[in-house]
Amino acid sequence: MINPARLTSDLSRLRRETDMFLATIESLADREMTEPTLCEGWDRAHVIAHIASNGNALVKLIDWAVTGEPAELYASPDAREQEIDELAALPKEELIQKVRDSADYFEEQCERLKGEIKTEELDLHGKPVPATSIPAVRVAEVVVHHHDLDTTWTIEEADPDSLLNAVEAAVRTMRAKNAPGMTLRTEERDEWVIGDGGQEITSDREGMLAWLARGDDEHIESQGELPELPKW
Questions:
Q1: Average pLDDT value over all residues in the chain
Q2: Cα radius of gyration (the chain)
């Protein structure tokens, strides 16, 4: 089971990040919903639709953790894309309500993690995720995709621990996709080793996330030429 105090803290941060995300998307004009984002191939409506879809899908990780029965987040990659396309086509207010509903549902279902955990480590698209980190996975999704919307909101506005969740999610992705060997260090004294850890790369959490998630290397320092990162 998740320590109740930790779960309360994680969900409190998740509400904060979700409320900021909602404030941003509520401020968008209808015409701004079709503008491009930092997430290749998706306009803003698709990024918002992904957050709505993801909240419901991650509940399946909770099901897996508490029942011991493996579960896929989506029936197939095509099914995922179709669901996101359908949500993105909704009128703006309907889509925003879907985000609210899925956020509420996910938070409600997280209470089940206070009970017995039958599967301690889960598989998320080939990435091992501790059951105790499911709320943090959702925090990371909201922070990264809020950044993807490319509005006046910046990742510096996220809670420091939420930024940490997001960088950890990016590191899991790099490991799962066999990124080049790197040792990542942040000004906040975090450290991660990927592969053989051969190349030392430093930044603050904001800069590290921007680079790992979307290739923005403006605030990255390296001992040599930066490696080419696998796409998410």
A1: 95
A2: 17
Q: What is the pLDDT of residues 121-162, one digit of tens each?
A: 999 988 999 999 999 999 999 999 999 999 999 999 999 999
Where does the chain have alpha helices with state H?
4-27, 44-57, 59-67, 77-88, 92-110, 134-148, 160-176, 205-214
Q: What local confidence, expressed as pLDDT, does residue 100 receive?
A: 98
Distance CA 134, CA 181 (A): 27
d(CA 34, CA 92): 11
Q: Model pTM?
A: 0.94
- The backbone torsions φ and ψ at residue 136, rounded to the nearest 5 degrees and listed phi first, read -65, -30
The helix-helix angle for 44-57 and 59-67 (nearest 10°) equals 20
Whether the Cβ atoms of residue 149 and residue 44 lie closer than 8 Å to each other: yes
